[in-house]
Specification:
Two copies of one chain form a homodimer. Chain A has about 400 residues and is α/β, with parallel strands linked by helices. Chain A is built from seven helices and 28 strands. In chain A, the strands form seven sheets. Chain A has a six-stranded mixed β-sheet, with no helix packed on it. In chain A, strands 16-13-17-21-20-18 form a six-stranded mixed β-sheet, with helices on both faces. In chain A, strands 23-25-24-26-27 form a five-stranded mixed beta barrel. The relative contact order of chain A is 0.13. Chains A and B meet through helix 1, helix 2, strand 14, strand 15 and helix 3 of A and helix 1, helix 2, strand 14, strand 15 and helix 3 of B.
């Protein structure tokens, strides 16, 4: 417990996290959720062989020595069913998505043809059988699982639900999350200005971090350093699936949070992690609730949220990909590292030949929240690192909200 | 116009896009929005020199030849103001965030001390001046711009707004987006099953793509291939900032969409782009509305949304980073490329030593929506490429919803 690494602490947290139950959501609310059921195709798609282009459906044998001239016997657009069978010397004008008629074995695109009259067309080039035809069932076949339980509902998956006519689906439910700040030094967002106090930024930074995962948290406010008030606030928080308490978990004699949580039946698993920022990071388990004790400094609190709360919340609501994406980047400057804790350095990223360059956002003091608002990633300096040199490859965890870049990244 | 590249088409779109106006939003709704005002600090933070650790504030000269024993004259916790001045041989017990008292010039953490009695402590090691002190104004100084106009409100920036006690802020407004599908072949989500029809997946895939940008679109439904109905639906769409019409923009004679849009005063800028999937991709400008004509195939429609609509919507609501992040990955297999259009291949990514490996999701037919729901990125095959070999470095645009990974990406 005295020298818990970040990885060991993550394993401790994730080892105690359970998947929450399922609920039904409408398609409009489904983005980002995780399926708690298998979704099966309810039809063949396309339901018959269809044209992949606007052009003419014909018999490939008729145009083997193109140019060749053919009679147009019918017009078929998407939504129409063909009425005639294509015979030798005949073709039909066909639109993208329309059924290929009996007799025809291929499609040629309109760009390779030339109209001679309303009912006659010249085919300029030969075309093989099955050209530009999308075969029946290419997209999906009746009964097959098109989205398996555990699939995250990306936009493509939401489209797939619509494709099988599912207006709602069973997904794992979202955790109910409460956020509580603690400490007499804090001034609430709507409290009058007091120059000697510190505005409560943590509640809102954490709110936004939770929102970024698609979850709407409840803000319980600020618990004062007064045992009965703190107890009452923590009791409220213990009605939720997840309670995030910031402040009050360090070793100071005035920190009531840990003993109060324990008195309320929370089994504390750890209360310190070998990391910077974020040393006083606690985690405990109550009958209904997973409790994260986050540091009082906003930056430390946010970094600990990234490392421990993000994967936990994502595991609860069914995700298998629970960690932030990491990339390898080239460090643009030296980084000193003398202590024995893993360090998470706020960095900006710039695209360069073959990858990314990572540059510190500047002063890394844990009270400097502005640096967190600039950061695109957290560069990981492992505990056993003795310093890093400019040019070295480093691992950067991407932070959400930085998922876009100025340039398209190439010309095409 | 006949051979418009993706890059040229993007430039055409972005050249006509204007930033929308500003509106005020509450902190709870501000995540992901872009500031339309400069935000200034309303106080020094911290308001005085404060301790960065739980420990003792003392005079560094007193412990130059530590171990040394000092009298504890006061306890100061965060939220308290010191009442006494530290004299030679004295110290105060101090909590993280509490003000450093007059007379003291440094802080030593509790781990480097040993209590002798309630009022006397042994300092085990010497400590320099200014150790573990966060100076007044380190986080911010009164009047300085802490978040500039144009900043995206990430969780850190939302925390910063709370830090300066802003319960609301001016941000660029979100575009109002309408989504319309077209074609007699389509079956609506709530329509009865008809084996000969194609379910309207586009409306919902596009809905989810828009939602992923933090915008709630309106679904107008399906316009039939009947001129007056189509005109009425398009007129409704032209009341919005952005109209996404899918289907009906190819060169087929049954495609009424383009002439109807033109009759309604939409100036079409292009109607084809040299890309695969997505060839029949149109863009036009009306007095109130930017109109995107997306292909009828769900995959093509989604890829065109990524390439053209994502950067446009992000530019409208004030983002400067408007393109999807790209990474360089190692291709795991050969890719053929014979035509002269840029191709966007759906790929999955796996982490490997030094970076990522990219692997096709399989069959790339534009009707195979399942492949889009699996994709983590779009690999770009430039128009002039003559094929790619396994092992080559390739550019991959990351798709949202794939921002997480199974493993933490290292141990620390």
């Amino acid at each position: 417990m005295e020298h818990l690494t970040v990885t060991a602490a993550q394993q401790c947290v994730l080892g105690s996290i359970k998947l929450l139950g399922a609920e039904s959501v409408g398609l409009e609310q489904s983005l980002g959720r995780v399926l708690a059921e298998d979704i099966r195709a309810n039809r063949d798609q396309p339901p018959y062989d269809v044209s992949a282009m606007d052009g003419f459906a014909l018999r490939s044998a008729d145009v083997a020595s193109a140019p060749a001239q053919l009679d147009i016997i019918e017009d078929i657009k998407a939504g129409d069913m063909p009425r005639k069978t294509v015979q030798a010397g005949q073709c039909v004008r066909i639109m993208t998505g329309a059924p290929v008629p009996q007799g025809a074995d291929t499609v040629i695109r309109v760009e390779d043809t030339q109209m001679l009259s309303d009912t006659r067309v010249q085919i300029n080039v030969p075309v093989k059988a099955n050209n530009d035809i999308r075969p029946r069932g290419e997209g999906m076949r009746t009964g097959e699982v098109v989205l398996a339980r555990g699939t995250e509902l990306t936009p493509g998956a939401v489209g797939m639900l619509a494709m099988v006519k599912r207006a709602s689906a069973e997904v794992y439910r979202q955790p109910r999350v409460a956020i509580l700040s603690t400490g007499d030094e804090l001034e609430g967002l709507h409290d009058p200005f007091d120059a000697d106090k510190i505005p409560d930024a943590n509640s809102y930074a954490l709110m936004a971090q939770v929102q970024a995962l698609g979850i709407t948290p409840d803000l319980l406010g600020i618990a004062r350093d007064e045992p009965s008030h703190l107890k009452e606030m923590l009791q409220r928080g213990l009605q939720y699936d997840v309670l995030l308490v910031s402040g009050g978990t360090s070793v100071g004699v005035h920190d009531y949070v840990r003993p109060t949580l324990e008195a309320l039946g929370v089994q504390m698993k750890f209360w310190r992690v070998e990391m910077k920022p974020g040393h006083p990071m606690a985690f405990g388990v109550a009958p209904l609730t997973w409790v994260f004790g986050l540091p009082g400094n906003p930056v430390s609190s946010m970094v600990c949220f990234e490392e421990f709360v993000v994967p936990a919340l994502r595991r609860m609501n069914g995700h298998t990909r629970i960690h932030r994406r990491t990339i390898t980047a080239r460090l643009t400057h030296d980084v000193k590292h003398k202590h024995s804790r893993a360090e998470f350095v706020r960095v900006m990223l710039s695209r360069e030949e073959g990858g990314y360059a990572a540059t510190s956002t500047g002063a890394q003091g844990s009270g400097i929240l502005a640096s967190m608002s600039k950061a695109e990633g957290l560069m990981v300096v492992p505990a056993d690192c003795t310093g890093m040199k400019a040019g070295e490859p480093v691992t950067v965890q991407l932070l959400d909200g930085a998922e876009y870049q100025n340039e398209a990244g190439g010309e095409w």
